[in-house]
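Q: Here's a chain of 176 amino acids. Please give me its 3D structure as tokens.
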Amino acid sequence: MPAQVTIGAELIVAGTGFRRALTYALGLTIVQPVSITSTRAVFRVPNVAPGPSSFTISGQGAPLVSRPVDVTTSGLAVTAVAPPCSPRDGGGLATISGSGFENGAMVKFGATYSADVAWHDGFTLLAKVPPAFSGSDAVITVVNPNGTAATLTGAFVYKDAAEEGCVPPRRRAAGR
């Protein structure tokens, strides 16, 4: 678990025995996992007071483990992606929102980097969605030129053409 987390960013905790029946809290604020397996839990850092705090995991009201963490209000964080889905062949544009984006940042959809990313400002990136190579869920990862990275889990999915909700990108006819 990192020693410092940014409000709005993901907090990834690794260990064993994670399950939804446990209670997870940052300071006095209960947080629900974005995703959870028995060895890893992902949380979105809630809007809490910045400064020193504790991340605590409890079972049946009794603390099982607690770790100190410093909560900050700035830094690299990915908070949203729009649209939330794409056809499996990709090609559309996605707007990535967050904070701490630097000019030259790269965007990954799952394990595949976007071939075309435009930096708008420290809070917005535009990225061409690459084709899906496996699975339907894609974790969005922004990697700044200095190597720092932030992720967004459970917010983007690839869909087959038969599924409703994602419209393929408009393509201009040749010669127009």
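Q: Can you summarize the key feature?
A: The CA atoms of residues 58 and 64 lie 5 Å apart.
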